[in-house]
Prior knowledge:
alpha/beta
Amino acid sequence: MRIDLHVHTSALSYDSNVAPEELVQLAQERGLDGLVLTEHDKIWDWDELALLSRATKFPVLPAVEVTTDLGHILVFGLRDLPRGHHSARTLREVCDGEGALMYLAHPARSGSVRIKPDEMTTLFDGVEGVNGSDGALQNQASARAGSACRLPAIGGSDTHARHEVGLAA
């Protein structure tokens, strides 16, 4: 099963130029089995995405890319962003209480905060080991960072434009 776990839409992310319906069409054309919409600091209404999924007969799930003091974090399983979500530690507490997962997004990107291994394993459920917007060396470094901490890696395209859909599903 191929699911793109890191996708932005023009509906909720200021830096994307792809509408949700167009993303679904492109994902289907490229052989994907589902999409996870990870808008910047905004979470789609779960019922709204369930309607989109039914209408298109294609799985579309909500998540969020949260901007925190430790960089960008992909969070799967929250319905709403909590107060204080810009603190990775506060976000971890909320995720633990709601059974949500936190993955450090594109950890080897230039300007990313360097996190100590013990902090990585305490705060994150995994890392984004492959990001379609990063180069091969960045992705190798990201995967190594997760592996060194024995954290599982995921992949996502980090789609902001049509040609990026499915690059790293």
